Amino acid sequence: MATKGKAPAPKKHHKKHKKLAFPHKQLRLVAANPAVDIEVPMGDGPATPTAGYAGWEEVQRIERRAMTSFQGLPAFQQDVPIMFDGWSEDRSIERQLEELEMLGGNVVFRAIGPIFRSGSKFVFGDEPEYGEMIRASDETLLRVRMTLKLMEFVRPNLAGTKPRPKHSVDMGIPLEYTVHGDDDTLAKIAFDLYHDRSKAIVIGRLNKITDVHKKLTIGRKLKLPVLD
Description:
The chain contains 3 helices and 12 strands.
């Protein structure tokens, strides 16, 4: 008598899936004048900020500790690696490169993609850095890696104050200085900070002091103009 047993479990067929090769993320660059709208594959590595966060400078003082002066934020900038690639298809990428070059000069464009401040307006802050290039036997360019130097565009009427001439005194952004020497006078402070005793008159106007040679009380706080 045949014994009843459990039916064998059906064999599972494991289907092997091929790994999909996802294309590079795209950077889109759009300008109105000239009319340019191109998509560029991102290259190796992410976009990297290079400027736009620091705005302080060190002001040297004779035989005293240097002080810091805020000069304003520089324009935001970033390095963006891209790659034009027609090598696998034996296709020229020179037309794409020409479109990119149309964004040079005084052209303002929008950049959208895996970068910082995507969608903002940018200009080229510097010349692109060129990397690997591959050409066909007839010298047609098939592949080029490059790094774009993007600088965020800020309209002049939104940039705040006008640029100050070099070595000008800005009466609108005073620093604070505490008198700490028995022989401190406005003339001495002006020489120590600005290497120019004539600036004592400007300091005096800020603090309503007419005698620039009068010794000042220790602990008194003075407003100081910023010297560029």
